Amino acid sequence: MVVWSPFRFNCGREMANRFAIAPLTTDSSHEDGTATEDEFEFVRRRAAGGFGATISSAAYVEQDGRSWQGIGAAHDGHLSSLQRLAEAMRAAGGLAILQIYDGGRIAKPELIGEQCLRAPSAVASLRPGARTPRAMTADEVAGLIASFREAAALARKAGFDGVEIHGANHYAVHQFFSPRANHRVDNWGGTLARRMNFPLAVAQAVRDALGPTLIAGFRVTPFEAEPDGYTLEDSKLLCNELAKLNLDYISVSLDDYRKSQPVGETRVYDGPVEKRPPPAESPITAFARVIAGRSAVMASGGIKTCIDAEGAIGMGADLVAVGRAVVVDPEWLAKVRSKREASILAGLPKNEREIAGALSIPPRMVEYLLSRPGWIPRL
Fold first, then answer.
1. Helix (DSSP H) and strand (DSSP E) numbers for the chain
2. Residue 233 CB: number of other CB atoms within 10 A?
3. What domains sit in the chain, N to C, each tagged with a CATH number?
4. Would the pTM count as exceeding 0.90?
5. pLDDT per residue over 280-316, tens digit each?
6. Please, which residues bridge with residue 219 across strands?
7. 278 and 322 in contact (C-beta within 8 Å)?
Protein backbone atom coordinates (compact mmCIF):
# COMPACT_ATOMS: atom_id res chain seq x y z
CA MET A 1 0.00 0.00 0.00
CA VAL A 2 1.23 3.48 -0.87
CA VAL A 3 0.70 4.79 2.67
CA TRP A 4 3.47 2.53 4.01
CA SER A 5 6.01 3.50 1.35
CA PRO A 6 8.71 6.12 2.08
CA PHE A 7 8.55 9.65 0.71
CA ARG A 8 11.46 11.92 -0.14
CA PHE A 9 10.99 15.71 -0.02
CA ASN A 10 12.60 18.20 -2.39
CA CYS A 11 15.18 18.99 0.29
CA GLY A 12 16.26 15.35 0.52
CA ARG A 13 14.72 14.51 3.91
CA GLU A 14 12.74 11.29 3.89
CA MET A 15 9.61 10.10 5.70
CA ALA A 16 9.54 6.37 6.43
CA ASN A 17 5.82 6.28 5.59
CA ARG A 18 3.14 8.72 4.40
CA PHE A 19 1.56 9.33 7.84
CA ALA A 20 2.17 12.55 9.81
CA ILE A 21 0.75 13.65 13.13
CA ALA A 22 -1.22 16.82 12.41
CA PRO A 23 -0.51 19.99 14.40
CA LEU A 24 -2.64 19.77 17.55
CA THR A 25 -3.33 22.72 19.83
CA THR A 26 -2.59 21.80 23.44
CA ASP A 27 -3.26 25.22 25.09
CA SER A 28 -1.07 23.82 27.86
CA SER A 29 2.31 25.58 27.80
CA HIS A 30 3.84 27.70 30.52
CA GLU A 31 3.01 31.41 30.44
CA ASP A 32 6.44 32.16 28.96
CA GLY A 33 5.82 29.92 25.95
CA THR A 34 7.97 26.98 27.06
CA ALA A 35 6.45 23.52 26.90
CA THR A 36 5.26 21.68 30.00
CA GLU A 37 6.12 18.10 30.93
CA ASP A 38 2.53 17.14 30.07
CA GLU A 39 3.06 18.46 26.53
CA PHE A 40 6.28 16.52 26.07
CA GLU A 41 4.56 13.32 27.16
CA PHE A 42 1.55 13.98 24.90
CA VAL A 43 3.86 14.29 21.89
CA ARG A 44 6.30 11.53 22.86
CA ARG A 45 3.61 8.89 23.34
CA ARG A 46 1.97 9.58 19.98
CA ALA A 47 5.20 9.91 18.01
CA ALA A 48 6.33 6.57 19.42
CA GLY A 49 3.76 4.89 17.16
CA GLY A 50 6.09 5.25 14.19
CA PHE A 51 4.69 8.18 12.21
CA GLY A 52 6.84 9.34 9.32
CA ALA A 53 6.69 12.87 10.73
CA THR A 54 5.22 14.76 13.65
CA ILE A 55 4.11 18.38 13.21
CA SER A 56 4.09 20.38 16.42
CA SER A 57 1.35 22.52 17.84
CA ALA A 58 1.65 26.03 16.43
CA ALA A 59 4.41 28.14 17.98
CA TYR A 60 3.90 31.90 18.09
CA VAL A 61 6.53 34.09 16.42
CA GLU A 62 5.60 37.32 18.25
CA GLN A 63 4.15 37.84 21.71
CA ASP A 64 1.40 40.06 20.30
CA GLY A 65 0.20 37.21 18.08
CA ARG A 66 -0.57 34.60 20.77
CA SER A 67 -4.00 33.01 20.29
CA TRP A 68 -3.74 30.48 23.13
CA GLN A 69 -1.33 29.46 25.88
CA GLY A 70 0.92 27.50 23.55
CA ILE A 71 4.60 27.17 22.78
CA GLY A 72 6.71 30.00 21.46
CA ALA A 73 9.47 30.33 18.87
CA ALA A 74 9.93 34.06 19.37
CA HIS A 75 13.38 34.37 20.97
CA ASP A 76 16.35 32.42 22.31
CA GLY A 77 14.58 31.92 25.62
CA HIS A 78 12.45 29.33 23.82
CA LEU A 79 15.43 27.39 22.43
CA SER A 80 15.86 24.81 25.19
CA SER A 81 12.13 24.01 25.20
CA LEU A 82 12.14 23.62 21.42
CA GLN A 83 15.15 21.33 21.55
CA ARG A 84 13.38 19.04 24.01
CA LEU A 85 10.24 19.14 21.90
CA ALA A 86 12.13 18.09 18.76
CA GLU A 87 13.63 15.17 20.70
CA ALA A 88 10.17 14.07 21.93
CA MET A 89 8.78 14.25 18.40
CA ARG A 90 11.50 11.86 17.21
CA ALA A 91 10.51 9.17 19.75
CA ALA A 92 10.46 6.51 17.01
CA GLY A 93 12.82 8.12 14.53
CA GLY A 94 10.28 10.16 12.56
CA LEU A 95 10.87 13.68 11.31
CA ALA A 96 10.18 16.65 13.61
CA ILE A 97 8.50 19.68 12.02
CA LEU A 98 7.75 22.89 13.91
CA GLN A 99 4.58 24.74 12.93
CA ILE A 100 4.79 28.53 13.37
CA TYR A 101 2.01 31.12 13.37
CA ASP A 102 0.76 34.57 14.28
CA GLY A 103 -2.81 35.11 15.46
CA GLY A 104 -3.42 38.54 13.98
CA ARG A 105 -6.98 39.64 14.76
CA ILE A 106 -7.77 36.41 16.61
CA ALA A 107 -4.92 36.72 19.08
CA LYS A 108 -6.15 36.47 22.66
CA PRO A 109 -6.39 39.86 24.43
CA GLU A 110 -5.98 38.13 27.81
CA LEU A 111 -2.52 36.98 26.73
CA ILE A 112 -1.28 40.01 24.79
CA GLY A 113 -3.18 42.96 26.24
CA GLU A 114 -6.15 44.72 24.70
CA GLN A 115 -4.07 47.49 23.12
CA CYS A 116 -1.75 45.05 21.34
CA LEU A 117 -4.34 43.46 19.05
CA ARG A 118 -3.21 44.13 15.47
CA ALA A 119 -4.08 42.72 12.06
CA PRO A 120 -3.90 43.50 8.34
CA SER A 121 -6.89 45.85 8.71
CA ALA A 122 -9.11 47.26 11.44
CA VAL A 123 -11.78 44.61 10.82
CA ALA A 124 -13.05 42.39 13.63
CA SER A 125 -13.22 38.63 13.32
CA LEU A 126 -16.58 36.90 13.00
CA ARG A 127 -15.91 35.05 16.23
CA PRO A 128 -18.41 35.87 19.01
CA GLY A 129 -17.16 38.73 21.19
CA ALA A 130 -14.25 39.57 18.88
CA ARG A 131 -12.49 42.91 19.41
CA THR A 132 -11.63 45.21 16.52
CA PRO A 133 -7.86 45.22 15.95
CA ARG A 134 -5.82 48.17 14.76
CA ALA A 135 -4.35 48.03 11.26
CA MET A 136 -0.66 47.17 11.16
CA THR A 137 1.77 49.74 9.82
CA ALA A 138 4.00 48.85 6.86
CA ASP A 139 6.94 48.62 9.27
CA GLU A 140 5.02 46.19 11.47
CA VAL A 141 4.19 44.02 8.45
CA ALA A 142 7.87 43.89 7.53
CA GLY A 143 8.70 43.16 11.15
CA LEU A 144 6.27 40.23 11.27
CA ILE A 145 7.83 38.71 8.15
CA ALA A 146 11.21 39.03 9.87
CA SER A 147 9.76 37.32 12.96
CA PHE A 148 8.72 34.33 10.86
CA ARG A 149 12.24 34.21 9.43
CA GLU A 150 13.79 34.34 12.90
CA ALA A 151 11.43 31.63 14.19
CA ALA A 152 12.49 29.36 11.33
CA ALA A 153 16.14 30.04 12.13
CA LEU A 154 15.43 29.16 15.78
CA ALA A 155 13.79 25.89 14.68
CA ARG A 156 16.89 25.06 12.68
CA LYS A 157 19.08 25.81 15.70
CA ALA A 158 16.84 23.63 17.89
CA GLY A 159 17.36 20.64 15.60
CA PHE A 160 14.02 20.39 13.83
CA ASP A 161 13.88 18.75 10.41
CA GLY A 162 11.72 21.56 9.09
CA VAL A 163 9.04 24.18 9.60
CA GLU A 164 5.40 24.44 8.58
CA ILE A 165 3.93 27.92 8.14
CA HIS A 166 0.38 28.09 9.49
CA GLY A 167 -1.30 29.92 6.64
CA ALA A 168 -4.74 28.47 7.39
CA ASN A 169 -7.66 28.55 9.83
CA HIS A 170 -8.06 32.34 9.90
CA TYR A 171 -4.77 33.23 11.58
CA ALA A 172 -2.64 36.17 10.40
CA VAL A 173 -1.19 34.70 7.21
CA HIS A 174 -4.69 33.61 6.19
CA GLN A 175 -6.02 37.06 7.10
CA PHE A 176 -3.65 38.80 4.70
CA PHE A 177 -4.94 36.58 1.88
CA SER A 178 -8.61 37.05 2.80
CA PRO A 179 -10.64 39.84 1.15
CA ARG A 180 -12.88 39.80 4.23
CA ALA A 181 -10.02 40.52 6.65
CA ASN A 182 -7.64 42.50 4.45
CA HIS A 183 -8.89 45.91 3.27
CA ARG A 184 -5.44 47.43 2.76
CA VAL A 185 -4.62 49.55 -0.27
CA ASP A 186 -0.82 49.26 -0.15
CA ASN A 187 1.50 46.50 -1.37
CA TRP A 188 -0.05 44.07 1.13
CA GLY A 189 -3.71 44.25 0.09
CA GLY A 190 -6.35 45.23 -2.41
CA THR A 191 -6.05 43.02 -5.48
CA LEU A 192 -5.68 39.26 -5.30
CA ALA A 193 -2.06 39.58 -6.42
CA ARG A 194 -1.24 42.00 -3.59
CA ARG A 195 -3.10 39.88 -1.04
CA MET A 196 -0.75 37.05 -2.00
CA ASN A 197 2.32 39.14 -1.24
CA PHE A 198 2.38 38.53 2.52
CA PRO A 199 2.02 34.73 2.48
CA LEU A 200 4.58 34.54 -0.33
CA ALA A 201 7.00 36.82 1.55
CA VAL A 202 6.65 34.70 4.69
CA ALA A 203 7.22 31.50 2.70
CA GLN A 204 10.33 32.94 1.05
CA ALA A 205 11.67 34.17 4.39
CA VAL A 206 11.22 30.75 5.98
CA ARG A 207 12.74 28.96 3.00
CA ASP A 208 15.77 31.26 3.14
CA ALA A 209 16.20 30.81 6.91
CA LEU A 210 16.02 27.03 6.72
CA GLY A 211 18.37 26.63 3.80
CA PRO A 212 18.02 23.96 1.11
CA THR A 213 18.33 20.84 3.31
CA LEU A 214 15.43 21.34 5.73
CA ILE A 215 11.70 20.91 5.07
CA ALA A 216 9.59 24.01 4.39
CA GLY A 217 5.82 23.44 4.43
CA PHE A 218 2.77 25.70 4.19
CA ARG A 219 -0.72 24.95 5.51
CA VAL A 220 -3.58 26.57 3.63
CA THR A 221 -7.35 26.71 3.94
CA PRO A 222 -8.49 25.94 0.37
CA PHE A 223 -11.42 28.36 0.35
CA GLU A 224 -13.40 30.43 2.82
CA ALA A 225 -16.80 29.02 3.63
CA GLU A 226 -18.08 32.46 4.63
CA PRO A 227 -19.79 34.70 2.03
CA ASP A 228 -17.44 37.08 0.19
CA GLY A 229 -14.41 35.02 1.14
CA TYR A 230 -11.68 33.85 -1.18
CA THR A 231 -12.45 30.95 -3.50
CA LEU A 232 -10.78 27.70 -4.47
CA GLU A 233 -9.69 29.36 -7.70
CA ASP A 234 -7.96 32.08 -5.65
CA SER A 235 -6.11 29.58 -3.46
CA LYS A 236 -5.06 27.55 -6.51
CA LEU A 237 -3.29 30.66 -7.77
CA LEU A 238 -1.62 31.09 -4.37
CA CYS A 239 -0.49 27.45 -4.32
CA ASN A 240 0.93 27.79 -7.80
CA GLU A 241 3.07 30.70 -6.61
CA LEU A 242 4.05 28.88 -3.40
CA ALA A 243 5.21 25.88 -5.42
CA LYS A 244 7.59 28.18 -7.32
CA LEU A 245 9.44 28.85 -4.05
CA ASN A 246 10.68 25.26 -3.77
CA LEU A 247 8.50 24.41 -0.78
CA ASP A 248 8.57 20.78 0.24
CA TYR A 249 4.84 20.41 0.84
CA ILE A 250 1.54 22.24 0.91
CA SER A 251 -0.97 21.00 3.49
CA VAL A 252 -4.71 21.28 2.77
CA SER A 253 -6.60 22.15 5.96
CA LEU A 254 -10.06 20.53 5.99
CA ASP A 255 -12.45 19.28 8.67
CA ASP A 256 -13.22 16.30 6.44
CA TYR A 257 -11.24 15.69 3.27
CA ARG A 258 -14.17 13.83 1.65
CA LYS A 259 -16.65 16.65 2.18
CA SER A 260 -14.25 19.51 1.40
CA GLN A 261 -15.20 21.35 4.58
CA PRO A 262 -12.73 23.98 5.85
CA VAL A 263 -12.74 25.35 9.37
CA GLY A 264 -15.22 28.23 9.74
CA GLU A 265 -14.01 31.45 11.32
CA THR A 266 -16.70 31.59 13.98
CA ARG A 267 -15.86 28.18 15.46
CA VAL A 268 -19.47 27.91 16.62
CA TYR A 269 -19.72 24.14 16.93
CA ASP A 270 -23.17 23.85 18.45
CA GLY A 271 -25.24 26.17 16.26
CA PRO A 272 -26.09 26.96 12.62
CA VAL A 273 -23.44 28.76 10.57
CA GLU A 274 -24.05 30.34 7.18
CA LYS A 275 -21.72 28.77 4.62
CA ARG A 276 -21.18 28.71 0.91
CA PRO A 277 -21.60 25.37 -0.84
CA PRO A 278 -18.32 23.47 -1.32
CA PRO A 279 -16.66 23.47 -4.75
CA ALA A 280 -17.52 20.70 -7.19
CA GLU A 281 -13.92 19.48 -7.24
CA SER A 282 -11.99 18.29 -4.20
CA PRO A 283 -9.39 20.87 -3.16
CA ILE A 284 -6.88 18.02 -2.79
CA THR A 285 -7.32 17.06 -6.43
CA ALA A 286 -7.32 20.69 -7.57
CA PHE A 287 -4.12 21.53 -5.69
CA ALA A 288 -2.37 18.36 -6.84
CA ARG A 289 -3.06 19.27 -10.46
CA VAL A 290 -1.87 22.88 -10.06
CA ILE A 291 1.22 22.00 -8.01
CA ALA A 292 2.07 19.23 -10.49
CA GLY A 293 4.68 17.50 -8.35
CA ARG A 294 6.72 20.62 -7.55
CA SER A 295 5.77 20.23 -3.87
CA ALA A 296 4.11 17.37 -2.02
CA VAL A 297 0.40 17.67 -1.16
CA MET A 298 -0.66 16.77 2.39
CA ALA A 299 -4.32 15.97 3.15
CA SER A 300 -6.01 16.11 6.54
CA GLY A 301 -9.46 15.91 8.11
CA GLY A 302 -11.49 12.84 9.03
CA ILE A 303 -8.73 10.26 8.54
CA LYS A 304 -9.62 7.44 10.93
CA THR A 305 -8.55 4.29 9.08
CA CYS A 306 -6.00 3.07 6.56
CA ILE A 307 -8.75 3.08 3.92
CA ASP A 308 -9.37 6.77 4.68
CA ALA A 309 -5.67 7.50 4.16
CA GLU A 310 -5.59 5.60 0.88
CA GLY A 311 -8.71 7.50 -0.20
CA ALA A 312 -6.97 10.84 0.34
CA ILE A 313 -3.95 9.65 -1.63
CA GLY A 314 -6.29 8.49 -4.37
CA MET A 315 -7.55 12.08 -4.63
CA GLY A 316 -4.03 13.30 -5.31
CA ALA A 317 -2.37 13.65 -1.89
CA ASP A 318 1.16 12.42 -1.31
CA LEU A 319 0.93 12.53 2.50
CA VAL A 320 -1.79 12.40 5.15
CA ALA A 321 -1.94 14.20 8.51
CA VAL A 322 -3.87 12.48 11.30
CA GLY A 323 -5.29 14.64 14.07
CA ARG A 324 -8.39 13.73 16.05
CA ALA A 325 -7.88 9.98 15.67
CA VAL A 326 -4.46 10.11 17.33
CA VAL A 327 -5.74 12.41 20.08
CA VAL A 328 -8.35 9.79 20.97
CA ASP A 329 -6.00 6.82 20.58
CA PRO A 330 -2.26 7.50 21.05
CA GLU A 331 -1.49 4.02 19.68
CA TRP A 332 -3.57 4.60 16.53
CA LEU A 333 -0.80 4.05 13.97
CA ALA A 334 0.51 0.89 15.62
CA LYS A 335 -3.00 -0.57 15.50
CA VAL A 336 -3.46 0.44 11.87
CA ARG A 337 -0.10 -1.06 10.89
CA SER A 338 -0.83 -4.37 12.62
CA LYS A 339 -4.35 -4.54 11.12
CA ARG A 340 -6.02 -4.14 14.53
CA GLU A 341 -8.27 -1.27 13.50
CA ALA A 342 -11.22 -2.86 15.29
CA SER A 343 -9.43 -2.09 18.57
CA ILE A 344 -8.92 1.63 17.84
CA LEU A 345 -10.57 3.79 20.50
CA ALA A 346 -13.63 5.51 19.05
CA GLY A 347 -13.85 8.44 21.44
CA LEU A 348 -12.67 10.08 24.64
CA PRO A 349 -13.63 8.37 27.93
CA LYS A 350 -17.02 9.42 29.23
CA ASN A 351 -15.52 10.22 32.63
CA GLU A 352 -13.62 13.49 32.24
CA ARG A 353 -11.22 12.56 35.05
CA GLU A 354 -9.99 9.57 33.07
CA ILE A 355 -9.13 11.45 29.88
CA ALA A 356 -5.87 13.10 30.93
CA GLY A 357 -4.32 10.09 32.61
CA ALA A 358 -5.45 7.33 30.27
CA LEU A 359 -4.57 9.18 27.06
CA SER A 360 -1.65 11.39 28.19
CA ILE A 361 -3.55 14.59 27.31
CA PRO A 362 -2.61 17.75 29.25
CA PRO A 363 -5.45 18.85 31.58
CA ARG A 364 -5.81 22.28 29.90
CA MET A 365 -6.03 20.54 26.53
CA VAL A 366 -8.81 18.33 27.89
CA GLU A 367 -10.76 21.49 28.80
CA TYR A 368 -10.12 22.88 25.31
CA LEU A 369 -11.31 19.70 23.58
CA LEU A 370 -14.47 19.49 25.66
CA SER A 371 -15.29 23.13 24.90
CA ARG A 372 -15.81 22.20 21.23
CA PRO A 373 -19.05 20.16 21.21
CA GLY A 374 -19.07 17.33 18.69
CA TRP A 375 -15.52 17.91 17.45
CA ILE A 376 -14.22 14.76 19.15
CA PRO A 377 -16.64 11.92 20.04
CA ARG A 378 -17.09 10.59 23.57
CA LEU A 379 -17.45 6.94 24.49
1. 14, 13
2. 11
3. 2-370 (3.20.20.70)
4. yes
5. 899 999 999 999 999 999 999 999 999 999 999 999 9
6. 166, 251
7. no
